[in-house]
Amino acid sequence: MPTDLLRLSDLTPRQVDDILDLAGQLKRHPYLHTDDLAGELVILYYTPPATRERITFADAAEALGATVAVVGPRELARADEPRPARLAQMADTYATMIVARTSDDDLLRLAQHTTIPVVNAHSPSHRPCQALADLLVLRDSLGGLDARRLAYIGDPTESRDLIETAAASAMDIRISPAAGIDPEPALTAARTIADRAGGRVASVIDPAAAAEDADAIYINATTTATIAPIGRAISCYDLAIELLATAATDAVVLHDPPTHPGQCIAPLLVRHPNAKLRSQAENRLPSAKALLLAATDHLAPRDQTLAHAAGQPADGPAGRCASQRCRDRRPQRPTPDDPTTYPRSPTGRSNAC
C-alpha cells in the first residue's frame, strides 16, 4: 500500500477492492475500528473553503479515535518558505497523517517534505474519496463492476479517479463530454488501464448513444450549458429521464456533487427510484474512514474485521489495537527534551518549533 493516497490509480485493483470492502463494512457497522487511531493526531489542511471534505474527514478521524487539528494558510504565514513545506516539517513531529484539500502542486510539496502519509481529500485533478463513495454505490447497486456499462455525461477531467478505477475493474465506459471539452487528455490513462484490465473506454458525442443499455448513468452537469451536445436546453432531471429510457431496465443514476435540489438539479431527481444521490452522500463517511485506515496501514484481514463485527475477540498479534501495531512499527517520535533530537540555542532552549 502506498504511503500517500493522492489518487486511486496509484493503487492496484486488489487494494481498491480491499478499501471498498472495508468501506462497506464500516457503512454496515459504524462502530468498527473506533480505537485504531486512538492517541494520534490528524491534520486537516484546507486552502479553499471545503465544507463537505472538512466535515467528512473530521468526523471520520474522530470516529476512529484520532484528535483533529484544522490548519489553513493563515496559520502558516511565514514568508521565508513555502507554506506546504512548513506544514510538512511541523506535522512530521506531531501528527500521524495530513489530509489536504488544496492544489495538485501543494499536495506534491506536502508529500515531498514529510514522512507521514498524505491523503488527498480533493484536488483539481483527483477526488479519491468521492470516487470510492461512487464506486461503492455502483458495486452495491449492480452486484459488481466487471463487464458492467457506465455512461458518463459531462466533463471527465473532474472524475478521473472514478473513470480510471472503473476501467481497472473491466467496466465498459462511454463518455459523452460537455460542449467544447476535449476529453482525450483525461481519458488517455483510463484507456491504457482498460486495455490492460479487459475493459473499454470510448468517447461518444450523443448522450443517448452513451446511455444505450447502460447499467449506470453518471451525470456531471450543473447547468444547461454543460449538456449542450443534445442540441437544446434541458434540466438534469429531464436529461436523466430521457437517458433512462435507453438504458438498461434497472439502471441507476448518479450525480456529481454538490447536490443542491432546486439549483443544480431538480428535486424530482433526488427522489427518483433509480437515483442513488443519497447513497453517494452516505458513502462519503465510510469511504473517508477506509482511506484513513489504508493510509496508516490499518487494513485488517477480512476475517479479523468480521470477527470484530460479530463481537468476537481476535487472537494473536493481529488482535491487538491497530494503532498500537502502527506505533510498534514506527520510530519513537522525537521530543524537545532529547538533546540529540533538536539543535539547541546557546541558552539551552530547544529550537524544536
Detailed description of the structure:
The structure is a single chain. With 353 residues, this protein is α/β, with parallel strands linked by helices. The protein folds into two domains: 8-127 and 284-329, 3-Layer(aba) Sandwich (Rossmann fold); 130-282, Aspartate/ornithine carbamoyltransferase (Rossmann fold, 3-Layer(aba) Sandwich), CATH 3.40.50. It has 14 helices and nine strands. Strand 5, helix 6 and strand 6 form a beta-alpha-beta unit. The protein is globular, with a radius of gyration of 22 Å. The two termini are 32 Å apart.
Sheet of most strands: 5 strands, parallel
Estimated share of beta-strand residues: 5-15%
N-to-C order of helices and strands: HEHEHEHEHEHEHEHEHEHHHHH
The number of helices is: 14
Derived structural class: alpha/beta
Instruction: Count the domains.
Output: 2
Q: Report mean pLDDT, rounded to a whole number.
A: 80
Instruction: Identify the CATH homologous superfamily of the largest domain.
Output: Aspartate/ornithine carbamoyltransferase
Overall 3D form? globular
Evaluate the radius of gyration.
22 Å
- What is the third-level CATH name, the topology of the largest domain? Rossmann fold
Provide the low-confidence segments as ranges.
223-230, 300-336, 338-353
* CATH structural architecture of the largest domain: 3-Layer(aba) Sandwich
Question: Count the strands?
Answer: 9
Question: What is the CA–CA distance across the termini?
Answer: 32 Å
Q: Class of the largest domain, according to the CATH hierarchy?
A: Alpha Beta
Q: Helix amount, in percent?
A: 40-55%
